[in-house]
Amino acid sequence: MNPKRTWLWLGIALGLFAFIYFFERHIEKEETGPRSILPGFRAADIQRLQVLPRGQLAIYAERTNQSWRLTQPLVYPARSAAIDALLYVLEHLTSGTFIPMHEVTNLPNADEQYGFDPPQFSLALGQPQFHLLVGRRTAFGNQVFVQRVGADGIFVVDARLLELLPRTVDEWRETALVDWEHLAFDRFAVTNAGKVLELRINPETSRWRIIQPTATRADGEKVQEALARLTLLHARQFVSDDPEVDLDVFGLRSPEMSIAFFRGTNTLLSIDFGRSPTNDPTLAYARRGDRTNVVTVPKEAFEQWTAAKSDLFRSFFDRHLITLTERPDGIEIRMDETNGFTLQREGSEVWRVLPDDYLADTALMREFLTTLTNLQAAQIEREIAGEAALPEYGLAPPGARYILRTSGITESGTITNRVIAEIHFGIKDGKVFARRANEGFVFAMNAEDMNRLPFHRLQLRDRRVWRFSETNVARLIIRQGGRTRELIRRGPQNWVPGPGWEGIMDPVRSAAVEETVHRIGDLEAAVWVQRGTDNIEAYGFTEKDYAVTVELQNGEKRTVEFGHDAPSQFPFARVNLDGETWVFEFPWLTYQMMEVHLEPYRL
Fold it and tell me: How many CB atoms lie under 10 A from the CB of residue 98?
């Protein structure tokens, strides 16, 4: 063991013991229970205060309209929450230990011993003033000596009070560059590398629109996300308050980026952003236009406005081809001047396909509308494309048109059918392009996205083929190769072979046939393929010659014939509905059940 170090620690221990014995033990003389440090003090009544940290300039603050503002040594918005927190603690501050003044005066150099010559902090609160002096910490450091000017002693309070007191004016300066709660702007402009992006919000629809460099739609979600990140604009450091400071040092004389907020024609606020400090590339120098001080702020707060300096406009352009503000009542789909159809709304989710006048599939219509409204351009191919340029993109005439209309009645009683959106598609050199009818942009599209849109009326027809319950079935007829076999239903899950053949039907097989018939009775087309008998042999119905007929108890029959497999590997099937032949792709799972459970009864 080092003898010198041993004597050092022994000396410290003896000194601490002597201090406690001769001085701090006097604290224990009077235990009076918790007592208020500032009787009659109410935080809500305080409109001004002064804090004088030891060795620093006095800090003055005044309350105006429920917020605090620093008035000395500089004029600047204050951190209202920090000041309010201090006042709240002072209003409720109590002391469990009190040292009477007569004991204090008996001690030599008492003010120095308790830390009041000079105090760590001097507080003057309100008018008339409450004057409070904060001394040093106690020996164990968890408490601090406090003296109220005019009181007859010294209080001992929780040392956490020190955490609420500012040692410099910067600790009470508001770090947020923008008071977003009170910044009622309807327009803002970002200047970045000489380019200007200006956006305005429609107060009625709350939708953002780009007005510079080209008037067009803005991507509202991206705009709101980028604006939300601006709330991170808090000063990390107050660098300079000199109004004559050399702005070139901070890259603020010709700022790399500026953002200004407006309401109508009035400029509410502007902020300039400069270069980064040499020792921290994650920060940037910034300055508000209505202030002279320079601060550093995190670049992540505004980097979305600088991430694509050469393409800022395209970064916030709305790539959606359709932005609906009204519910469509009709959708016209045209492949050319003679090939097209219309979808007409008849209820909340009820649509009809015209001119054929059959019901549209509810789920497919919901999927179509979702796909249509989520459809986005892969990129802007051309910003200004006149009529003469459209053939370059297969858009004159377009290969497909989707026109959305809404119905209404004018004041004179006239029924209107107003177009609310119209998009055109074209194909050129294997590439897919699109444009909105009311815009000059040409977009490059992903072919997969366009392929999800319907282009034929059968694609949206109600997929229901028929509906009947197995409880209404009398028999099942299976035909193949010109020969037939029958299964007769005698009750729930009770099937027996028909006349002319002997088969084995146990309860398990009967239950399997029952479930298969249930699936047939709830039949939905996977995809409708054709209406009518044109070129019907292309689907292989005569080659396979396989059909299943369900005879109901009322004598009606439901027959489905099968052809060869479609490219999707689903078998082609045809049925007769209301005297017309319909070809469709048969649902694969139902077909597999028929293959497994009806195979023993096929010839």
Answer: 20
AA identity, residue 335: M
Candidates 400, 402, 407, 401; CA nearest to 328 is: 407
Rounded to 5 degrees, φ, ψ at 347 are -165, -170
Rounded distance between C-alpha atoms, residue 593 and residue 517, angstroms: 10
At the top level of CATH, the class of 25-66+75-169 is: mainly beta
Let me know: does 443 contact 319? Beta carbons within 8 Å: yes
In the structure, what pLDDT confidence band is assigned to residue 29 with cuts at 50, 70 and 90?
very low
DSSP 463-489: -B-----GGGEEEEEEEETTEEEEEEE
∠ CA 581-551-463, nearest 5°, is 40
Beta-bridged to residue 290, according to DSSP, are: none
Q: What is the tens place of the pLDDT at every residue in 168-185?
A: 999 999 999 999 999 999
Q: With contact defined as beta carbons under 8 Å apart, do 68 and 61 qualify?
A: yes
Q: How far apart are CA 401 and CA 434, in angstroms?
A: 10
Cα separation values, 61 from 65, 69, 236, 338, 540, Å: 13, 5, 22, 78, 91
How do residues 430-475 score in pLDDT, each as one tens digit? 999 999 998 889 999 999 998 999 999 999 999 999 999 999 999 9
Distance separating the N- and C-terminal Cα atoms of the chain: 104
**Cα separation, 342 vs 352, whole angstroms:** 8
Q: Residue 79 has which token pair?
A: 């951190």
Q: Residue 52: which of 149, 128, 176 has the closest Cα?
A: 149
Distance CA 212, CA 190 (A): 10
3-class DSSP assignment, residue 228: helix
Give me 103's structure tokens: 């004991």
List C-alpha distances in Å: 230 to 271, 304, 312. Answer: 11, 10, 16
**Beta carbons within 10 angstroms of residue 165's beta carbon:** 17
Quick check: helix, strand or coil at residue 365?
Answer: helix
**What pLDDT does residue 109 have?**
84
Beta-bridge partner residues of 428: 431
Give the DSSP letter of residue 498.
Answer: -
Q: Is the pTM of this model over 0.90?
A: no
* Cα–Cα distance measured from residue 371 to residue 522, given in angstroms and rounded to the nearest whole number: 27
Cis amide linkage into residue 100, ω under 30° from 0: no
- Alpha-carbon distance 114 to 134, whole Å? 9
Q: How far apart are CA 328 and CA 409, in angstroms?
A: 15
Residue 581 parent element (H or E):
strand 580-585
Closest CA to 330 of 425, 219, 415: 415
Instruction: Measure the CA–CA gap between 23 and 20, rounded to whole angstroms.
Output: 5
Domain boundaries, the chain: 25-66+75-169, 180-316, 330-455, 470-601
CB 204 within 8 A of CB 280: no
Helix 588-597 / helix 507-521 crossing angle, nearest 10 deg: 150
β-strands 473-480, 483-491 pairing: antiparallel
Task: Please give the pLDDT value at position 261.
Answer: 98
**Cis (ω within 30 of 0) for the bond into 355?**
yes
Summarised one tens digit per residue, pLDDT across range 386-395 is 899 999 999 9
Name the pLDDT band for 307 (thresholds 50, 70, 90).
low
Strands, E, within 73-194: which ranges? Answer: 76-77, 94-95, 97-100, 121-125, 130-137, 143-148, 153-158, 187-192
